[in-house]
Write a structure and sequence with these properties.
This protein is 71% helix and 0% strand. The protein is mainly α. The longest helix has 28 residues. The radius of gyration is 18 Å and the shape is globular.
Length: 228
């Protein structure tokens, strides 16, 4: 009996690309640190899609893939020696800095991807499916919930031990100034604003540029080199 060919979904394709990056990059590289985090998120989304935990699987797949493509495109841009979006520049610039800790790399990548890429991915998804942002809000929230739960695990795994994490440790203060939940709320507002501005390309372009710059500035703060 002939073997059935395995069906490769669009989510499988982006997971494969992330796995290839994971194998190719040095473990301590800042992009590698974020890539491992994002790979875990994408695999979790894929499992939830397969388990039927999304109300609209087609919308979930489209949002997940459009979202991932923006990160992978930023990586390709740098590989091709071109300039990435402002939100990603700090992570690429500091990816090998010895004074930046792994948790900083992970959160700076999440900041760039959630603060900028996710808003644009919502708009991309609505254009692809011919729907409104409110129609993909459940999928947006589900992906956001996965990220929040994973962020908690990341902080536990990558945070220094109790003996190092003193109240005066600069890392404590630096990371306390950034919140994934606040970033996610701001992203949903940005996505709705961009959708409302779609008929005004000049204004929408200026909005995207300012969003990109602001998220990049926050990323640069997260990557402040710290003393050992």
């Amino acid at each position: 009996m002939p073997q059935l060919e395995q069906f490769v979904t669009p989510v499988d394709a982006v997971v494969s690309r992330m796995r290839a990056l994971d194998e190719a990059l040095p473990e301590r590289d800042g992009i590698a640190v974020f890539n491992r985090v994002y790979l875990a998120v994408t695999e979790a989304v894929d499992r939830d899609i397969d388990a039927g935990r999304f109300t609209d699987a087609r919308a979930a797949i489209t949002l997940d893939v459009r979202f991932a493509e923006r990160y992978l495109r930023a990586v390709e841009t740098v590989t091709d020696e071109r300039r990435p979006p402002a939100c990603w520049r700090p992570l690429f610039q500091y990816r090998r800095h010895p004074g930046v800790r792994p948790l900083q790399f992970a959160l700076a990548g999440i900041n760039a991807h959630i603060g900028h890429d996710l808003a644009l991915a919502v708009v991309d998804t609505c254009r692809t499916l011919g729907c409104e942002p409110v129609d993909v809000e459940d999928e947006f929230d589900r992906v956001g919930d996965l990220l929040v739960s994973l962020e908690e695990r990341i902080r536990e795994d990558l945070m220094p031990g109790p003996d190092l994490l003193q109240i005066a440790d600069p890392l404590t203060h630096l990371l306390g100034a950034w919140s994934l939940e606040r970033a996610r709320d701001a992203t949903w507002t940005a996505a709705r604003a961009l959708w409302a501005l779609r008929g005004l390309p000049d204004v929408a372009g200026e909005f995207r540029e300012r969003l990109d710059t602001a998220v990049g500035f926050a990323g640069r703060m997260l990557l402040t080199p710290l003393p050992d």
